[in-house]
User: Which sequence fits this backbone?
């Protein structure tokens, strides 16, 4: 659905990794509408068979991946030697840069699994920077409280409070917001930024249009997004500065040209993919 100020995208079921069932909000077919974002997935289930096979060892180059776990645990290991477990409320911000090989394996939980993964395109001048891994614990993430809402500030700035993720390759705001029934929140829409929200739970009213749970709203114009909760509302607000650069995308690798993409796969096949 599309109106003058936003477009609604409905999530679609898909299977990734070694057989993980998830919902995809947008991906390859929606580029370049979401520039600098490439893909956004909502993964999780009460049934371990839907997620336990995980995402075994695979390469990335030219992008960043942001994994945010609401509930459950995901074990991580990579070619930099990093190892760890992302637990409920934690965030993993991984810059693949010139090349990294990693795996992400959810752990079986009686409470189920629930989380999100966002892919961010790196600008041409930073495609081949050194890989970097950042593990942000829930206790490091500022929480702003008001009579109307609660906001977890994963990255960016809100009311002069700065998130824990700094020195970003792309200017990104990432907020997790819970809004009380019949309350509203106004969020700035930055110029030259792509901004969207994803409704995790509850129903919202935007410009007198009802937005259902599980939908993504991509804002097209305006300075302010006013979001009203019809009931208890839980959503993500994500915004990033547009790159306006050509994209050559092959699975887990995203470059600017077909020649760069071909070289990346050749290096992966001959063992010279990881530079650092």
Assistant:
């Amino acid at each position: 659905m599309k109106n003058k100020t936003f477009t609604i995208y409905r999530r679609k079921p898909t299977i990734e990794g070694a057989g993980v069932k998830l919902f995809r909000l947008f991906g390859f077919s929606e580029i370049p509408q979401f520039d600098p974002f490439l893909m956004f997935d909502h993964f999780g289930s009460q049934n371990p068979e839907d997620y336990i096979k995980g995402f075994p060892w695979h390469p990335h180059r030219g992008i960043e991946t942001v994994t945010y776990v609401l509930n459950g645990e995901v074990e991580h290991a990579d070619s930099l030697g990093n190892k760890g477990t992302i637990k409920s409320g934690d965030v993993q911000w991984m810059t693949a840069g010139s090349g990294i090989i990693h795996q992400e394996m959810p752990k079986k939980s009686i409470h189920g699994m629930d989380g999100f993964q966002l892919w961010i395109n790196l600008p041409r001048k930073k495609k081949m920077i050194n890989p970097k891994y950042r593990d942000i614990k829930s206790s490091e993430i500022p929480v702003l409280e008001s009579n109307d809402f609660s906001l977890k500030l994963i990255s960016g700035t809100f009311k002069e409070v700065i998130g824990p993720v700094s020195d970003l390759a792309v200017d990104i705001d990432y907020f997790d917001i819970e809004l009380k029934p019949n309350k509203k929140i106004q969020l700035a829409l930055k110029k030259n930024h792509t901004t969207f929200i994803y409704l995790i739970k509850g129903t919202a009213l935007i410009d007198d249009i009802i937005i259902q749970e599980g939908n993504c709203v991509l804002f097209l114009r305006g300075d302010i997004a006013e979001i009203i909760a019809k009931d208890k509302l839980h959503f993500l607000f994500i915004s990033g500065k547009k790159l306006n650069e050509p994209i050559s995308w092959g699975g887990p690798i995203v470059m600017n040209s077909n020649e760069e993409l071909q070289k990346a796969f050749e290096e992966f096949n001959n063992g010279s993919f990881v530079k650092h």
In short: The chain has a mean pLDDT of 95.
